[in-house]
Amino acid sequence: MSSKDWIEKDYYAALGVDKSASSDEIKKAYRRLARESHPDHNPGDTGAEERFKTVSEAYAVLGDEKKRREYDEMRSLFGSGAFRRNARGAGQPGGMPFDVSDLFGGGAGGGDSRFSGGGGFTDLFSSIFSGGGGGGGPARPRGPARGRDVETEVALDFTDAVHGVTLPLTLRAPGVCDTCHGNGAKPGTQPVACPVCHGAGVTTRNQGSFSFSEPCRNCQGVGTVVEEKCPECHGTGGVTKTRTLHVRFPAGVADGQRIRLAGRGEPGERGGPAGDLFVQVKVRPDELFGRTGDDLTLSVPVTYAEAVLGTDLRVPTLDGTVTLRVPPGTPSGRVLRARGKGVVRKDGRAGDLLVTLDVVVPAKVSDEARAALETFAAQTPPAAREHLDARVRRFS
After folding, report:
1. CB neighbours of 42 closer than 8 A, spacing ≥ 6?
2. CA–CA separation, 304 vs 358, rounded Å?
3. How is domain 1-128 classified at the architecture level of CATH?
């Protein structure tokens, strides 16, 4: 990603969000677009692959608060025409806008007109206006760059999420070339100092009243060039490879939680550290159990007779069974608690199993049951409804 890209490309439009969008809105838009255009879901579709690269590039900037702030400042500065020069000399009319391409080497000398690194607003001005209005020392060559973070999703069974599980995770992503170990040179050879910048990684040229230091176009600011390229990666130092990681999901991991694996993302450039891998957890619902925090929930039907007379109720847990006492006269919706039968907390303690009783009323009964219920009703006082009867009489 080049610094010129930051001026020319509208990353907000790429993600379909407004400039005032929150971080969560940007992340949500990126996930949706990345999922829709991912090459694995669109095999052979070059258009989808380009869209995936575009949204990934946009999120790499807008998803980082510092980069987003610098990006906004740069586009605001150049969009307002803050940098302009007079083509006919100071004080004369007929001037023309400052050509942004001059800043990137497009105005003199030919070659690649882009910086090869995405240093952002601060790096742009530190490299271009070295020392202020002219003179000053050369800009620093590009140093090691941290690799990008990678994010993926994994679906877990409900039981595995509660108890914890280790699963293999297969990723297809950029990685260091095993043949040249990342230096891009053919085995048995090494990169040599760039003959243009003599290993400095930058060159200096004069542009009117300014002295510009910019990354060397011959070595792309690295300071070295590869004379004999690696046959595997063709001198890039990196290849797309498939790798399998064994990821440990701790007991009690929740739906929507992110697991961070430090240093397991994309490899860094020029010896920089690798990015991180973030695994988004999706927990499949269970046919019996629900979850509220560290407590498990379960709904159990009971008969009218069991609710009235009371009973010992045997219910399942994730580890076996437990017997709960249903007191006589238990109403529908009452919650019984089985302590310690929920999700194990980080401190070793466990949540509870909350059992909600649902009194089932049969749609049909036998003649004998109906007679028994009528006898029961005749011997049972009616429910206290005085507070309701007063309101009914008001509208009668």
Report:
1. 48, 49
2. 10
3. Orthogonal Bundle (1.10)
Strand-pair partners of 193: 224
Please enumerate, by residue number, every residue annotated as part of a binding site for Zn(2+). 177, 180, 194, 197, 216, 219, 230, 233
Does the pTM surpass 0.70? The reply is no
How deeply is 366 buried, as exposed, middle or buried, from its count of CB atoms within 10 A (0-12, 13-18, 19+)? Answer: exposed
Please state the residue numbers annotated as binding site.
Answer: 177, 180, 194, 197, 216, 219, 230, 233
Give the span between the Cα atoms of 280 and 42, in whole angstroms. Answer: 22
Does the domain made of 147-281 have the CATH classification 2.30.30.240?
no
The mean-pLDDT minimum among 217-221, 306-310, 366-370, 377-381 falls in 217-221
φ, ψ for residue 225 (rounded to 5)? -130, 155
User: Any idea where the domains of the chain sit in the sequence?
Assistant: 1-128, 147-281, 290-394
Nearest of 354, 353, 355, 357 to residue 301 by alpha carbon = 357
Q: pLDDT by residue (tens digit) across 347-393?
A: 788 999 999 999 999 989 899 999 998 998 888 888 777 778 777 77
